[in-house]
């Protein structure tokens, strides 16, 4: 049984365009503040996986691969704590991403804030936070609208 849902980005394109522009700004903020594409895409992929957003996982997979994230890296995202493939910066960013996905559990816990803050500068931390905010917004858009997963390109 196929369910028809309001396609938010088509029904209110001006709001979607604003979100897309926000995402572009966040990408520029990341680049300007030392967050490379590999790190940003790891955060995008991990957040989308945790949120259960197949649409965004599919959308960000080619971007992650182009940014130097390997298929093996992607496969190990769900077990990054036990994996040895991620750098200290990547591990800190993945932990921060988890805090943003689970923001309803009390926000970014002090111990995570301190740990992440010991790895990143204030500007890097802020850029990563904006990246987390951006992908979580897109995850919610795609999940609420049950956007179909695009085919592999």
Task: Walk me through this protein's architecture.
- The longest helix is centred in the C-terminal third of the chain and has 23 residues.
- With 153 residues, the chain is an all-alpha fold.
- It has 8 helices and no strands.
What's the topology here?
Elements: H1 8-11, H2 13-32, H3 37-51, H4 54-66, H5 71-76, H6 88-101, H7 110-117, H8 122-144
Helix pairs in contact: 2-8, 3-4, 3-6, 3-8, 6-7, 6-8
β-strand amount: under 5%
- The secondary structure category is mainly alpha
CATH architecture tag: Up-down Bundle
User: Please, how many domains?
Assistant: 1
Q: Please, what is the CATH homologous superfamily?
A: AhpD-like
How far is it from the N-terminal to the C-terminal residue, by CA? Answer: 27 Å
Q: What order do the helices and strands follow?
A: HHHHHHHH
Instruction: Give the biggest sheet.
Output: none
CATH topology: AhpD-like
Q: Quick check: average pLDDT?
A: 95
Q: Short summary of the structure?
A:
The protein has 153 residues and is mainly alpha-helical. It has a single domain, classed as Up-down Bundle (AhpD-like). The protein has helices at residues 8-11, 13-32, 37-51, 54-66, 71-76, 88-101, 110-117, 122-144.
């Amino acid at each position: 049984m196929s369910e028809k849902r309001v396609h938010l980005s088509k029904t209110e394109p001006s709001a979607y365009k604003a979100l897309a522009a926000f995402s572009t700004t966040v990408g520029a903020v990341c680049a300007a503040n030392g967050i490379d594409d590999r790190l940003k895409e790891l955060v995008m992929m991990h957040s989308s996986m945790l949120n259960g957003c197949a649409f965004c996982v599919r959308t960000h997979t080619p971007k992650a691969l182009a940014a130097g994230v390997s298929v093996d890296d992607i496969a190990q995202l769900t077990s990054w704590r036990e994996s040895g493939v991620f750098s200290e910066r990547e591990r800190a960013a993945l932990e921060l991403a988890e805090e943003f996905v689970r923001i309803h559990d009390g926000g970014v816990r002090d111990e995570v804030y301190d740990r992440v803050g010991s790895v990143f500068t204030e500007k890097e931390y802020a850029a990563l936070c904006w990246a987390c905010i951006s992908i979580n917004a897109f995850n919610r858009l795609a999940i609420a609208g049950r956007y179909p997963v695009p085919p592999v390109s």
